[in-house]
Amino acid sequence: MNDNELMKTMPVPQAVAKMAIPSIISSLVTVVYNMADTFFVGQTGDPLQVAAVSLTNPIFILFMAFANMFGMGGSAAASIAMGENNKKRMKQVSAFITYASLGVGIVFAALLVLFMQPILGIFGANAETYALAKGYVFHISYGAPFIIWSAAASFVVRSEGSSREAMIGSMIGTVANIVLDPIMISGLHMGAAGAAIATTIGNVMASAYYLWYFVKKSPNFSILPKDFSLENRLAATVCSCGLPTAIFSMLMSLSTIILNQILVAYGNAPVAAIGIVFKANMFITFLQMGLANGVQPLLGYNFGSGDTKRFHAVESYTKKCCLIVGILATALFFFFRRPIIQMFINDEEVIQCGVRMLVAYMLSGPVIGILFVNMNCMQSAGKALPATILSILRQGVLLIPILYLLNGLFGLNGVIFGQALTDYIAVVLSIGLWRGLAKKMYQ
């Protein structure tokens, strides 16, 4: 079987499965990685430790904002250079994302250490959670260069066609984190600080693997200082390509900070609960996101070749799959909502709060995949702007005012429905936008 057969002639259900399953697996690995810290910290039975980790989530999201900007932008620039057979440019791209990632990571580390108290105050830490959050932030701060570079490097490695090596690097960090978490958190009784140490060590190990790859294995890339360059607007090219993703992540970080600030007024239990709910609900969301992202090459190929009939068939079939998966996953989580929260922590106040929050967040579970498929259809059809606008609306511009409004009208009961309400608005907007664009395309 060749790529043309997969893209052009293979039956749509089979082609979607072949493209989507690896993407879904990668998404679920990401979910497991994100769950690990909260799960093992929760095993201490201390809701304050869980709240401390929840409060510091925006920091990790900010790290990922820059990692995705350098990684996705670097991947795009490297792919173009590879197509042009410009090996000098490829070496410059990999060297640039390496030193830019390390440089930004060092700046983050310095800022977090020097201004830790006001930063944690902004994040919503109070007298009970400050010391615990401080321990987590200190140990995650010196890991910033490795966290950002290892994530960015995986994108660039993949652009060379080395998907297996990129996956190995990601798995090294994930497995190391999962193995070290219980040792550091419970075995050595380090709590939230132990979770940060495990995360940092995992990313140092992943970075070491990518260092080996670039130095010993890659035929095209380099991370030698002599190859670092800013000529031909390299920095602008890399950063502009990755900027929409970075903006999305930054808004996600901002909305998380605001949500924590609102929730901390109701006590530390809601803050601990929302941290658990975020991680648990990721399973429903990322399952459908992985499915939608997996078929994007199929959509892009058929749009480029002018085969709108096959494009529509892939779109329609993927949406049906997302609906089925969304309904089944949401139903599963609804029936086991209490055991799911209890799996993370055995504190009754946090469990009761978490169950209510999980039900509220799950309301958009059956349909959120429609949003992701519509956004990928827009991007595949060369309409990236409306897709970017939808992302920004869902993660910040629309969500943040809704959180404040619902908090003012209904208090905590209103706040927990903010994400689901925003999701439904975004889904409806995506249907309207894509219907208009698709009508012109199919004509």
Largest sheet: none
Number of helices: 21
Low-confidence stretches: none
Portion in beta strands: under 5%
| Count of discrete structural domains | 1
Class from helix and strand fractions: mainly alpha
Rounded mean pLDDT score: 87
User: How many β strands by DSSP?
Assistant: 0
Distance between the termini: 32 Å
Rg to the nearest angstrom? 22 Å
Detailed description of the structure:
The chain has 443 residues and is mostly helical. The protein has one domain. 85% of the residues lie in helices and 0% in strands. It has 21 helices and no strands. It is globular and about 60 Å long. The two termini are 32 Å apart. The model has no long low-confidence stretch (mean pLDDT 87).
Question: What's the arrangement of secondary structure elements?
Answer:
Elements: H1 3-9, H2 12-42, H3 47-55, H4 57-83, H5 87-114, H6 116-123, H7 130-141, H8 144-159, H9 163-187, H10 191-217, H11 234-264, H12 268-294, H13 296-304, H14 308-335, H15 337-344, H16 348-362, H17 368-380, H18 384-397, H19 399-410, H20 412-415, H21 418-442
Tell me briefly what this model is.
This protein has 443 residues and is mainly α. The chain has one domain. The protein has helices at residues 3-9, 12-42, 47-55, 57-83, 87-114, 116-123, 130-141, 144-159, 163-187, 191-217, 234-264, 268-294, 296-304, 308-335, 337-344, 348-362, 368-380, 384-397, 399-410, 412-415, 418-442.
